[in-house]
Every structure is written in C-alpha cells, then in structure tokens.
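Anyone have tokens for [Ribosomal protein bS18]-alanine N-acetyltransferase? Sequence:
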Amino acid sequence: MLEAPQLRWRAMAAADLSRVMRLEQLSHSHPWSEGNFRDSLNTPGFYMPMLLQDARLLGYLVAMAGFEEVHLLNVTVEPAARGQGLGRLLMQALQVWAQQQAAQHIWLEVRQSNAAAEALYRSCGYEFVSLRKNYYPLNAEQREHAIVMHKALPSAERLAGAD
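Reply: yep, here.
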C-alpha cells in the first residue's frame, strides 16, 4: 500500500511567485497582481505561508499584523483540492500566527457571492460585522459587496489560565 504524501508548510518567497500567480489566476476572477505579492513579501509584518504536498502548491494565505489585530488579505486553495479541509488548516495556521503576534482580533472581507468561504469562516468562529458596499470589482461596469467578518482571539492570560 502506498503512503499518502505528507502536507508541509513553507514561507512564500519571491522564487515562488510564478506558481503562486498560476494558482491565483486559476482561483480568482480578480486575482492579485504579482506586484501585490512582491509588496507583501517585502513589507515587515506580513505572514505568507504556503501549504504543499510534495512539489504541488495546494494553497497559501497573506495576512498582515497591525496593533493588536491581524487582517487576512488573501487565502487561496487550489480548486481541485477544495473541500478537503485545507482552507481550515490555513485558517488555523493564521490564528496561531495571530496569537504569536499578540493580536486580539482577526479581520477579513469576503465577497458576498462567496458562500463557501463565508461558511468556512463562520465555522472557524468568525462573525458578521458589516457590509462594505461595492467593495470588489465584479466586471467592467459593476461591483460586489464585501462581508466584513471578525474573530476575537483569547488573550494570553486566558490561554494560560490566569485570572
């Protein structure tokens, strides 16, 4: 019997951008530009893990830390690998990193039409905060609303059991 290939994590680097861009363009109707990724790679306070299986890029995320909060900017899972819990693994990694940054909150926006992503975020404990009208481009003439979601993180004191 063959063993299933193991998943592994690695930080995104400039050398990864060609395959990141392939997955980004495959996955999003309005993908980030290579410049967006380069700027994130070159800016302190960004978290950009990639999830791989052997040499296959399965997913990645981009998040930035601010004062006591983290903002999720991009999370992408290869279309053929969706529905296997990889989005949840990426969101769990984000929460661990956010807590290491002493963040008290994680914020994100999701397209109103992206019901699968919204359901994932809700199942990970994120709650609806507001609607940002006309936030995302939809086509040349129209825009789409963004759902703003938030998750409060347990403080270090509560995690350690201190009162």
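The longest helix spans residues 86-100.
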